[in-house]
Design brief:
Layout: E1 2-5, E2 14-15, E3 21-25, E4 32-36, E5 39-44, E6 49-50, E7 65-75, E8 78-89
Parallel strand pairs: 2-8
Antiparallel strand pairs: 1-3, 3-6, 4-5, 4-7, 7-8
Length: about 90
Amino acid sequence: KDLYINRPEYGPQYHSWERLRIWTEALPLGKVELWLDGRLVNSYDHGPYVLVNEDRASDAAMTFGAHVLKVRAQDGSGWLEREFKFEYAK
């Protein structure tokens, strides 16, 4: 069982037009929470799991610089958690 994020398309940093997507492995479909820099920003009952959302208005949702994303996925009566450090570039 594990949690993953997609890699940036161009280089080591994500860009404003890219979406950070979360993938679950060997977990039942269920609740997933996305915490960005210590603040809950998304909560899903099912996939797809994406930081912010897919529409173009989200191009400006992320601030440039370093961030920490904590992903929490319900696993039965408990939670599987993993933190990812990433950067957004101009």
